[in-house]
Amino acid sequence: MKRFDCLKFLASLVDEHMFAVTSLSTNAPFWFNVRPQGPNFFALNMGLCLPFALGLAVAFPKRKILAIDSDGSLMNDSSSLITVADVNPGNLVAFVMDNGAYAFMSSTFTTRRTDLAKMAQGAGIAKRQYGQDVGGIFRGGEASDGKHGSDPHCR
Amino acid sequence: MDQHSVQVIIETLKEEGIDLAVTLPEEPTFALTEAMREDPFFQAVTVAGEGNGLAFCAGAALGGRRVVFVTGIAGLLVGTWALSQMGMVYGAPILILASYRGDFGDHSGIPGSQLLMFKQWPSCCLGALRVPYRVVNQKRP
Fold first, then answer.
1. Among residues A44, A80, B33, B104, which one has the fewest Cβ atoms lying within 10 Å of its Cβ?
2. For residue B99, what is the domain's CATH number?
3. Cα–Cα–Cα angle for B85, B87, B92, nearest 5°?
4. Which domain holds residue B70?
């Protein structure tokens, strides 16, 4: 699935109250294109998207927070997975766009031995999904076990 | 940190309505963070890295929470990337309490070259990042 198509479909699932936070990557302009209005924080720099979204999740426990991160960003501070697992918010859904590349430059580690979904599992995030079923991943994020995470493989 | 200092800080945080306490434990401030963890007034969160701790604090603060991040001076140095973003770029209102190292009478056992670096970097680095700071080196009488 192409990233733009993935985000366009994802935008159709979010309501006007849902916060969205994107990494500084193609996620930012694409998300602006598909959801130009509403509570958005665009372009959090390296490693900061997921923990920033976690802070919003704690500040707004009754609203759903959507983190749209990217593989290079998450790998820059993968210890944030541990923090997310420990805080264990019930209202945070994290999408990690794993295109296996640093923008238009070289490949990331996920094209070789690194598996972000397994890293999330090892960090203690119990509910994680991998694949192209964006709707299923999004709805899965609404489960009541309070542990969320996902890894759509989009390019 | 002695119990009197711990009590003064906790009372002040309560007066200011700062009820979200975020930390990555370190020895000089451990008594403070443990006291906050045991006090039901505070929501205490332990983070796995200073960078994601500061980003977490920024998200919470911009969402309306009043937050304190307790760390050491080395931890603050580790977190300067996040601090540059959350401070200069987003202007997130975060109170940071960082233990001060390297002054006369520091018997922490940390090698002198480390202590020298710990003492020297905050003023220039925090100044460059436009982070207002204050060195507290005296107890309230």
1. B104
2. 3.40.50.970
3. 110
4. 3-128
